[in-house]
Amino acid sequence: MLANEARESAMPETDDGFGARLSLAMKLLNISHGALASAARADKSLVSRWARGMTTPRGPYLAVLTEIIHARAPRFTQLTWDLPLDEFARVISDEAPTAVAPPPPAAAAPVSRRVLIAAGAGAVVLGGGAWLWLGRKSGDRDVPASVAPLMVQAQAALGQMTVEGDSQAVGLYRKVAVTAPDYADGWGALAYAYATASHSRSAAEAVEMAVRARDAAGHASALDPGNPYAPVALALLQPRLGHWREVETALRSALAKRPDHEEFLAALGILMMQVGRVREAAAAFDRALGRGGPSPRLAFLRSIALWSGGRLDEADRAIAEAAALYPTHVGVWFTRFNMLLYGGRASEALAIANDASRRPSGIPEAGFEINIAEATAMASRAPADVDKAMRLYLAAARTGAGHAQNAIFFASANGRLDEAFAIAGALFLGQGFEVGDVRFSSVQGSYTRRADRHTYFLFEPPVTAMRADPRFEKLVADIGLARYWQSAGAKADDRK
Hints:
Blueprint: H1 3-10, H2 18-28, H3 33-40, H4 44-51, H5 60-72, H6 85-92, H7 113-119, E1 123-125, E2 131-133, H8 148-158, H9 163-179, H10 184-198, H11 203-223, H12 229-236, H13 244-257, H14 262-274, H15 278-292, H16 296-308, H17 312-325, H18 330-341, H19 346-354, H20 365-380, H21 383-397, H22 401-413, H23 417-429, H24 464-468, H25 471-478, H26 481-488
Antiparallel strand pairs: 1-2
Helix pairs in contact: 2-6, 3-4, 8-9, 9-10, 10-11, 10-12, 11-12, 12-13, 13-14, 14-15, 15-16, 16-17, 16-18, 17-18, 18-19, 19-20, 20-21, 21-22, 22-23, 23-25
């Protein structure tokens, strides 16, 4: 029987989900349920349920199934599962895709970095009416014209620094890898996107994203052994706490190869904030802005870095510009709120908290009630108002890591240092009480597990009093920051 006839006879008549794809692969490759169960070290009944579409394998099982099929169909990758059924079958049969158009014109050749830079922002019409977007100067090299617009869109999505933006970036990079499977940076960027997104997902989702990140990094390294994305992605898969040095090493190595890479510069800036090296963070963000232009992420993070470094006039200008560009972006809005609240302008912070029409969307009203209470307290300084806000924050700190961070801000700024250190002990070490993995609310869908907790806020102005307390030395030792400073030979800026 010819390959296409065998494929057509194996095609399921109705279901076109995962079960249909697995069944099709097993038929085309002549793999029995028992053989697959043995190779995957899974119960035969579980394999049967997968093949019948009753359940979908997650995490390691999906990677194992991919490897089993890849051994018999070399073009098969983890992204193949998402292809339309007929394309899926062609990959299994190792056939070239059906030609639907003449070969692309010469303009579809890889676009060099020099051309991308020279073109600047905008779009260029190619022969045949095709459009090639040459906007952001990300630092990626020799981008195939067929995926250049996708790479630009994915970079912009990462620049949102939200759950939705990260998800969009992953989807776009997946499309890049399918469209240009020999493009190493496409696979590397996909690995990077999975790795960064994994830190804001639930534990179960994070496991699956880590598997996918390693798979994509493996493809990038196979295509280009020196590809800088792969080691950065693998380093970023480690928990945040205690692994700053390894991530820094990977990022600096990547930047030695691509000094102007927007994403690597942004990631380095974030890392420098986490370890208190805020001047270097601001410099990295400045370089990233010079490469790729504005984004909400760079706008609010640069503002925080300037604020934390004592460059107050520059910080005020930066957050004002950010608010003008992205007025309801969640990171920009709350950065502006905090800078007003703890910068002697609590009445202005209270005014924007009360303005429901200009708040970020997707945040429960209860969250803003705490913001209003703390702004009221900071404006009045009345003990009763401070006590009320502190009670609200102590309760909220148990429900989410983001609330705990904000509670530490408020407690430290109001001289409640016992409460500040108690909350920090719970947040980072699980002492006293448990802090929920959800960041603020399940509605927002962002998570921060204990091993992935942020430390950058410890170096912001509201925590000045806490940093001056002798107990801070034990805290930074317990969470590994003191060890990082020693190994890196570089202290936090306010410790120099």
